[in-house]
Amino acid sequence: QEIYSVKLPGNPKLGEGKPENQNHAVIFTRGNAVQTIDMNQDNYFEEALKMRNLLEEFSQNHGKFRPSILGVREHVFTGSVSSLASFMSNQETSFVTLGQRVLSNPLKVRMHYGHPDVFDRIFHITRGGISKASRIINISEDIFAGFNSTLRQGNITHHEYIQVGKGRDVGLNQIALFEGKVAGGNGEQVLSRDIYRLGQLFDFFRMLSFYVTTVGFYFCTMVILYLIRYVMFFLAAVFSTILFVNIQCPRMCAVKHF
Predict the structure, then answer these.
(1) Where does 97-240 show beta strands of DSSP type E?
(2) Which candidate, 151, 153, 216, 209, places its Cα nearest to that of 190?
(3) E strands, the chain, where?
(4) Entry pTM
(5) Any idea what the Cα angle at residue 71 is, between residues 68 and 72, rounded to 5°?
(6) 68-125: per-residue pLDDT in tens?
(7) 3-class SS at 11?
(8) What value, to the nearest 5°, has the Cα angle with vertex 35 and ends 81 and 55?
């Protein structure tokens, strides 16, 4: 039985797949809050019982502005599949707990990272939606929801008393592709107008925090990789010189003694 239908003018997928699906699905939602769940995420019954407490956070005082996105932590349940999956699970666990806790408070630069965050539905559907779906520029489509919310005087919080299960990559090829996608998406963010406008509006300290948590992370990683290479070349040259001197010195001493 067909309850609702939407007539599409053409190809339903013109941009990135996930934000296109979200933009199409949001018109079927009701109520004041929307939780975004990825295909590789799962929920637990005991965690669902806490949802009422989480929704009450919308009416709590979290600073100058009321919350527009309630951040939620994740539990990566694929850590026991392989050693690589375990490393990925530990990395993700540290990011969704300690990392996002600091990003939210005191740095105030936490965005939306594709996690099971709860959106203020009325706030976002009246301010451009919860996703941007343009091809290439919105490869990392999730974080643009955080940009959009912050630019429009939203407040993004983080809460760790509730969690949602998530399956992460378990193979080296999958992990490499994922890290490449994230890095490429970060490069595209630098070209976006959202980053430019945030840079114009943030104060100095918040701007530095925002830089380090976005493109600054990859810039520092690049600098470290180049420094490691040059330091290794330098140490190899120093040790080879020391070795050459130690080999030549006994010969010279023997010649002089003779």
Answers:
(1) 118-120, 156-166
(2) 216
(3) 33-35, 41-42, 69-76, 118-120, 156-166
(4) 0.81
(5) 145
(6) 999 998 888 888 888 888 888 888 888 888 889 999 888 889 998 877 899 999 999 8
(7) coil
(8) 115
